[in-house]
Amino acid sequence: MNIFVCVKQVPDTETKVTPNGDGSYIETSSIKWIMNPYDEFAVEQALLHKAANAGSTVTVVRVGGAKDTEALRTALAMGADEAILVDSADNLDSYMTAKAIKGAIEKSGKTPDLILAGKQAIDDDCLQVPQVLAQMMELPSVSVVVGFEGEGSNLTLKREVEGGAIEVYNVSGPVVVACNKGLNTPRYASLPGIMKAKKKPLTTLSLGDVGVSDEDQRIKYSDFQLPPEKPAGKKFDATDEGAQASVVAEVVGLLRTEAKVI
Amino acid sequence: MINFDYSQEQKEIREMAMKFAKNEMQPVASEFDESGEFPTEIIKKAWELGLVNTCIPEEYGGTGFTTVDSVIISECLSYGCMGMNTGIMANDLALLPIVIGGNDEQKKKFLTPFTEEYKIASFCLTEPGNGSDAAGIKTTIKEDGDHYVVNGQKMWITNAGFADLFVLYGTSDPELKHKGISAIVIDPKTDGIEIGAPEKKMGHKCSDTRAVTFNNVKVPKENMLGNPGDGWKIAMKTLDHSRPLVAASAVGGAQCALDHSVAYAKERNQFKVPISNHQAIQFIISNMSMKVEASRLLVTKSAWQLDQGQSNTKMASYAKAFAADSCMEICTDAVQVFGGYGYSKEYPVEKLMRDAKLIQIYEGTSQIQRLVIAKEIFTRS
Predict the structure, then answer these.
(1) In A, which residues are within 8 Å of B15 by CB distance?
(2) % helix / strand / coil in chain A, to the nearest 5?
(3) A246-259 pLDDT tens trace
(4) Which of A126, B133, B313, B332 is 20–30 Å from B239 (CA)?
(5) What ipTM is given for this predicted complex?
(6) Terminal alpha carbon distance of chain B
(7) Is residue B363 annotated as a catalytic residue, yes or no?
(8) Domain A2-216, what fold?
(9) Of B199, B350, B363, B376, which is the active-site residue?
(10) Is residue B307 part of a domain?
(11) Predicted confidence (pLDDT) per residue in B168-222, tens digit
């Protein structure tokens, strides 16, 4: 089977984010990058499926800057066979990203039997690329997947829906599967894995190579700003038992009129 | 040409080892400190990921790490728990004499199994009456027909209760001092070996430390590393390799104490502001941070020299003494930053302070390191 995994490289969750000079994106010069945590579930699932289906290969695809390649290297160190990088800005919109991934998969010369991705990236939280990609490639897609069973292309996927209910899908591939937390426990990249990863093929393509141009841009980012600083919380003194009823009334009133949460 | 950057691969090794330390070791460190239980499952998991036995060369099944790679790993694992890392490092300490002094056959026989399955090793040098004065070893290795016979007692042997292999230093004749010392590989299951009860210690409680007694223990001749009398040379070379690792473990413990202190200083309020706003705390934390970085640079240089084929004896002693002493100071200061909470077992820094102390003692005390440095200064220049 030809298994593809889409991975995104995102700022480490502990990063202090600041807007860049022209406000078109965040300042990336001193950012520590990690693989998007939801994509780790996708890589792990790909490796599990590869192990269960002899002769399979796992190819990871990433669209983003070529300066740091942590996400792809991590995926290779975990056990993926090869990697494709589409060299571009780090904040392409979802449409361009999906189109670039589609182009990269086609360019690889392999017909995909299964495409895995994280359900969302934790930086822009768009939750779009897997579905857009599936649409472009005319494939079915299942998102928020927490259960994955089956052999080869015949899969039973469990999907989490609001309220904690589970939907079960029987799919025959090729299919795009967007993974959620709880699907599996991603393995560590072992040290021998890290040493082997540098010998694995990593192909770099340009946006032009995968058929993406400026005309594909659907969203133009501008005016990135930090959220306004939180004002200090209000304190209410309810130590005097006699005054408690009125304090409670005041708090409830403010929650209604000022905070507008009830 | 100077370059202070880790290679891309070293960054990844660091990332991965730190992730392991933070996810697998740190959350249970105080639990193991409390119980004193040997962390078999954790070390096994570390072994599966290639974090243990980093000294084994590629041709014998190892990963082929440089010494710089190894100190990165030691620092990270020690960040997770200094005590657990002692157990992990003790394997390298025991296997290094084989890497350094063993012939091809011995390396295949003794090293390769450690890459194929989870195994534990012990380095048996120290004796009840001989610590710093290592050349005063009293344990004897005497030739007897087609084998050797070992007699004597060893003390403070790390991993002894779990070991699958011992590397023991003994002498053919105590009068010969260092010229009589040999290193030999021993199967801990051999008749005549008595393994003592675990020692009760101030820190590193989950590392297994015991006395081991050898009563007429027969060892095959082919287990001798190098020639009889090569032991001292092998031991000294082993220390050149292992001191950077131990010094790195001091850096890991110190970095952990620093990180806890910075986080706590930002959230603890006194006089209506976080204590990180107080200059008194800022000065303590700045000093901690300086010492961590200086220690790390010394450790890295001492490892790098070895990788370059240069003599690193002096640098390794600089690193060991400076990093261990700094770690003790930093962990003591961390308790100070935490104040009363720092003294409580509910918070992580009192354990760090107890663990730090041992690093000034084992693998050559801070005083012995200064003797080594002085010897290098006065006899080599």
Answers:
(1) 70
(2) 30, 25, 45
(3) 999 999 999 999 88
(4) B332
(5) 0.80
(6) 25
(7) yes
(8) Rossmann fold (3.40.50)
(9) B363
(10) yes
(11) 999 999 999 899 999 999 999 999 999 999 999 999 999 999 999 999 999 999 9
